[in-house]
């Protein structure tokens, strides 16, 4: 099969995804560049979370192929094996924490991967998210913003190759948003982590992303550099979306 996947970490080709008989995603071609921060925008129900689920290989697309790191996965191929899946991690909007301490939550991914736990590194990470003093506190007693920061620390502790973020700062106050955004940028710069973020917050996308994709009703409407998208969008739908005129 001919493809243009070269140079991309992910390359989606002929993706169509259905829930029951409803087509919720339809993407002819989409490449994600290694080391970029890629934003997925769009009204509610546009298919953003579905796209993230496919990128995390939580489910197979109904049709089409996902090239990841040069290998083919998708409707005609099996899902990746555990070592590949474990390179990728998702932080959800309402993370589920284990009913134990903050510290044990953060080291959990190291344990299941059989990786060494270096206490100092874990504590440094907790300091970065402003939670070193709560390392021994039960995770269930945390506020929403604190829980979200633990979830991010837990995602970053094993230095993932891909970090998928689904509305990571929805419902958080500006202080928490800024801690999380700083860590996202820093992780991308320091570790060259490829980061794909779904956000309703166009200002956040503008602050963080190198490129953005605008989805509507499961289809790409505009794919552009963040700079061009926000300063000079190509299509009217994007213009209206940025101006907050899309009602959803
Ligand atoms: N498990 C599922 N079963 C059936 N339909 C689903 C399922 N998950 C999502 N959908 C439908 O697929 C469509 C896309 O949903 P998705 O959650 O990907 O949108 P979204 O852009 O992330 O929306 P939001 O911004 O509201 O989170 C919606 O119409 C939704 O109702």
Automatic annotation (TrEMBL):
Which keywords does UniProt give here?
ATP-binding, Nucleotide-binding, Transport
One function term, GO molecular function aspect? ATP hydrolysis activity
Q: What is this protein called?
A: Tungstate uptake system ATP-binding protein TupC
Is-annotated flag, keyword Phosphoprotein?
no
The transmembrane segments are: none
- GN (gene name): tupC
Q: Where is the ABC transporter domain?
A: 9-242
Upper lineage: Bacteria, Bacillati, Bacillota, Clostridia, Koleobacterales
What SUPFAM superfamilies is this protein classified in? P-loop containing nucleoside triphosphate hydrolases
Species name for this entry? Answer: Koleobacter methoxysyntrophicus
Record InterPro entries: AAA+_ATPase, ABC_transporter-like_ATP-bd, ABC_transporter-like_CS, P-loop_NTPase
Q: Does the keyword Nucleotide-binding apply?
A: yes
């Amino acid at each position: 099969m001919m493809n243009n996947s070269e140079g991309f970490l992910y390359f989606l080709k002929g993706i169509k995804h259905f829930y029951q008989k409803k087509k919720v995603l339809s993407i002819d071609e989409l490449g994600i560049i290694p080391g970029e921060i890629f934003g997925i925008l769009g009204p509610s129900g546009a298919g953003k979370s579905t796209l993230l689920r496919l990128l995390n290989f939580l489910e197979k697309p109904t049709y089409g192929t996902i090239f990841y790191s040069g290998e083919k996965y998708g409707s005609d191929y099996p899902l990746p094996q555990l070592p590949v899946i474990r390179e990728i991690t998702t932080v959800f909007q309402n993370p589920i924490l284990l009913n134990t301490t903050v510290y044990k939550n953060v080291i959990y991914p190291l344990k299941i991967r059989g990786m060494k736990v270096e206490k100092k590194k874990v504590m440094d990470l907790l300091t970065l998210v402003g939670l070193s003093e709560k390392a021994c506190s039960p995770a269930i007693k945390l506020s929403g913003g604190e829980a979200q920061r633990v979830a991010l620390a837990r995602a970053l502790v094993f230095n993932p190759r891909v970090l998928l973020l689904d509305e990571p700062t929805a419902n958080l106050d500006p202080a928490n948003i800024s801690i999380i955004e700083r860590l996202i940028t820093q992780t991308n710069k320091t570790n060259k982590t490829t980061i794909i973020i779904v956000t309703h917050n166009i200002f956040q996308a503008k602050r963080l992303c190198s490129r953005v994709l605008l989805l509507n009703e499961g289809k790409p409407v505009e794919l552009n550099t963040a700079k061009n998208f926000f300063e000079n969008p190509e299509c009217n739908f994007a213009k209206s979306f940025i101006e907050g005129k899309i009602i959803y």
